Amino acid sequence: MRHARALVVAAIVVVLCAGVAPTHAASPSLGAALDRALRTPGVARDRTAAIAVDLRSGQTVFAQNADVSLLPASVEKLAISFTALHVLGPRFRFHTEVVGVGTRTGRAWSGNLLLVGFGDPTLTRADLNRLARRVAATGIRRIEGRVLGDDTYFDTRRDALGWKPSYLGIESQPLSALSVGGLPFAGANGSAAAAARAFTEALESRGIAVDGRPGAGRAAADAFPIAFDLSRQLEHIVPQMTADSDNFVAEMVLKEIGATFAERGSTASGAQVVRSTLAGAGVALAGVRIADGSGLSRFDRFTVRALADILRAGAADPSIGDVFVSSLAVAGVSGTLKARLDRRPTRGRIHAKTGTTNRASALAGLVRNRYVFAILHNGSPVPYWSARAAQDRFVTVLAGA
């Protein structure tokens, strides 16, 4: 299966990198079939947008409201994944550090240890145990002080502009630079202290006594480095954001983009970098507004033309194309499409990103090496099942063309 999927991705990239060659005009019957497929009860035509582009000719074979600005839901993550792979690189790794403030005498550290987070969205208890093992390997057996969690690498905002209060803890963990998956914590600002508690437990399990109670703090600039942990490479994290549609991963990646390239680990700074990167790739940005990384914000806006541009640019980029395409969900096989479009002619042939909120339903991706497409349905609320059925009909027509 992996070999077959790799061949599909390679074929898409080859076609996109080969340039545009003149071919026959789009069939009027194809456009009519796509128009029929898109029609669905409960969604107004002026709140429905779709586009399909022939990758062999570069010709738009269908367009409806292609430049209308609509809520994107999670298909916005395409912009974040494209930018992250482009500017950070597929081999980028998040890191987490242990530093000390104080002095060492024999086997005792007199002062505090700090667990410093740098935005790793995949940090787990296993990583903390690994860090504790590395601290123990230095010979330290007692901390005459406290263990503190430092999440100051990112800003202090724990949600994003336009989020409902209920999103925190349900749709996403608080947007802290130090957050350990699966840990209980109190309040939106409790992630750092919770990480410090878990790290204290990990140290004690390695035979290191800790005198003080864990909490939150900030490492001094001259703190002494003791141990560090690296995440998996970004190319292995991006599928969590796109194929699995993990909101927290998307938000952390966006803040990392801001911290690295705009010198501020904030959502707004990351969004500025995303816009400039998309503009440099030739993406049509009229009607595009990026308020967060996940697509949850009520202020996010995209056009289907911009989404199609991102897909074409990402797949055609020789340095990231294979990673970008393979990170998408595959119809009937993986991610949010595992139980969807799982019959011929779509199973295994559609690489796409889904999106669902109560006001938006979306699907955008590639039909093998032939078409790129994007569909946005908006409503108040949007009729989820009928919108999805229309999207599935649309791509089924493309897959059979």
Structure write-up:
The protein is elongated, with a radius of gyration of 23 Å. It folds into two domains: 2-91 and 236-400, DD-peptidase/beta-lactamase superfamily (Beta-lactamase, 3-Layer(aba) Sandwich); 95-231, D-tyrosyl-trna(Tyr) Deacylase, Chain: A (3-Layer(bba) Sandwich), CATH 3.50.80. It is built from eleven helices and 13 strands. The protein has helices at 2-17, 28-38, 77-87, 125-137, 191-205, 234-241, 247-261, 267-280, 304-316, 321-326, 384-400; strands spanning 48-54, 60-64, 95-105, 108-117, 142-144, 147-150, 209-210, 215-216, 224-230, 329-330, 350-356, 360-367, 371-378. Residues 1-11 and 17-25 have low confidence and may be disordered. β11 and β12 (360-367) form a beta hairpin. The protein is of the alpha/beta class and 401 residues long. Strands 3, 4, 5, 6, 7, 8 and 9 form a seven-stranded mixed β-sheet that branches. α3 (77-87) packs across α8 (267-280) and α4 (125-137) packs across α5.
